[in-house]
Amino acid sequence: MRFVEEIVVEEFLPTFRSMLAESLRERGLTQSEVAALLGISQSAVSKYVHGDVERNERLLDHRGMTELVERLAEGLADGEMSPVQALVEAEVFVRELEHGGLLAALHEEAVPELAEYGGEFAVHDPDSTLRAAERTLSSVRQGLRVLENTSGFATLIPAVGSNLVQALPDGTAIEDVAAVPGRLLDVKGRTTIPAEPEYGVSEHVAGVLLAARAAGSDALAALNVGYDPELVEALEAAGHTAVEFDAETDVEAAIDEALAGSPDADVIYQTGGVGVEPVIYLLGEDAVAVAERARDLL
Fold this sequence. Notes:
The chain is α+β, with helices and mostly antiparallel strands. The chain has helices spanning about 5-25, 30-40, 40-50, 55-60, 65-80, 85-100, 100-110, 130-150, 205-215, 230-235, 250-260, 285-295; strands spanning about 165, 175-180, 185, 190, 200, 220-225, 240-245, 265-270, 280-285. The chain folds into two domains: about 5-120, no CATH class; about 130-295, L-fuculose-1-phosphate Aldolase. The protein contains twelve helices and nine strands. InterPro entries: Aldolase_II/adducin_N_sf, Cro/C1-type_HTH, Lambda_DNA-bd_dom_sf, ThiN.
C-alpha cells in the first residue's frame, strides 16, 4: 500500500523545489533570500540549484509545472505574491495533478490495483477559501503599487484619504473586504501607504462597495478619489457609466436607488453635503483595474 502523498514527497517536492529555487536564483535572489521564501535551509537551496537532488523527468517536462514555477518565481521575486499565496497555488496544483493528472498516473503505476476503479481517482478537493483570500490580497497589493508609482495620484486623494478595497468573490460583510489600514494619504505631494492590506479594516469605502454589490453591481473592487465634475466628464468620455447618489441620506438606500436604473454603472459619486466631502468611487472587477483607471485620469 502506497499513498499518493508519498509520491508527492518523493517525486513532486524535490522536482518542484529545485525548479523554483533555480528560477528565483535566475531572477537575482541570493541563496539566503531563496531559503527564506521557501522555508528551507541555505544548504538545501544549494543542493537544489546545483542539481544534487533526483528529479522526476516527467514532472520537469510537464507544461503546467513549468508555468506554475515561472508564475510563482515572478510573483515572489517582485513581491506581488506572498509565500502563503505561493504555497496555496502549489497545493492547488498538486491536488489537480492528483485528480486525474500526472501524480494520479504515477500513483496508479505504483499501485496498479487503482486502475481497476477506472476514471479519475480524486484524492482531494482543490477548492480553497484561503486561495481566494490570498489572491484578493495580492490584487490589492498590485493595485497599490500602481497608485504608488503613478505620478500625481496624490492630487486625487480627498481630504479624508483614499482607500483601495477588494471583496472576496462571495463577500457580503466588511470582514470579507481587503483594504489598507488607515487609508492612503497625500504627504507632501506623495502617495503614502501606511501598511499592508488586511481584511476588515475599511468601513467607508468597503461599505460603499458592498452597498453597490447589494444593489446589483458585479464590482469586486473600489477606489475613492476627490470629486471634480471634470473627472466625471472624463470618465464618461472614456466609456464609463456614472451615477450620482445623495450623500446626506442613508448610504445603502441612496446607492440602491442610484443603481436601480443603471446596475452596470462603474462610477458612483456624491457632490457633498453638510459635513460630507464630495467623493467619486471607481468600481471595477479587481483592485488593479480600478487603480489603472485612476492612473489614466492623470
